[in-house]
Amino acid sequence: MELSIGYYLVLSAFMFIIGVIGVLIRRNAIVVFMSIELMLNSANLTLVAFSSYLGNSIGQLFVFFVMTVAAAEAAIGLAIIIAMFRNKKTLNIDEINILKW
Amino acid sequence: MSLQLILFIFFGSISAVSSVLMITRKDVVVSALFLVLNFAGLAGIYITLNAQFIAVVQVIVYAGAIMVLFLFVIMLLRPENEKKFLEANPSIKIFAVIIGAVIFFQLIYLIFFNNAHNPTNVGIEESIKAGTIEEIGKQLYTNYILPFEAAGFLLLAATIGALVLAKKKFG
Asked: pTM of the prediction?
């Protein structure tokens, strides 16, 4: 492993920031959701990088759990989006503001 | 140039460029397909980190199952044209980029200029051993059996919850 771990951490930070910007600028609920998946993946990359550089498999175990939670979250979130679309006929998160005070 | 560096640059640029394209494309389907490309690039990066099991699971679970679910919902709903989504508020875009830049430089500072020492580079044999399914499975079924069961229960709850939420009528 002649490559420094900094390369992987910078790539992970970059992808996390892209996810943050995506959540902030996009108004489509599904794209916001995909940006959240992107942030989860950048966290996974950090976990795998440290796990591999420390020779410890626990980090990769946690990536496994993150993937489980992401799958559950995607199923629930998309079901909520379908229910919302059925009621409001839109995916624009600016128009879905019943909970806004 | 070592092989690891070449592979890192190749897969890393695929991931980085496709993530940027994902949040800038107007068509949601194109966005989702770029996210699939991003996940495939990440799987390649996991291979350069000797994490074989995670790389395979990444392709099967993320690029396979989760993204198929996303594309399914996108094509089911077929949202109206995207133009008014992006042109909603230009000031929020500037705000988002500023926030992104601030967090990025914070992270870069943490990665390169902190006092904590870099992790000691263990040998490549140790690293390969940590990524095998044997090692991960051994940990999963001994020390982490309770979280594993909890994850299974979470998936069951998510399945039932998704069915209830997406049903035609509530209750």
From this structure: 0.90
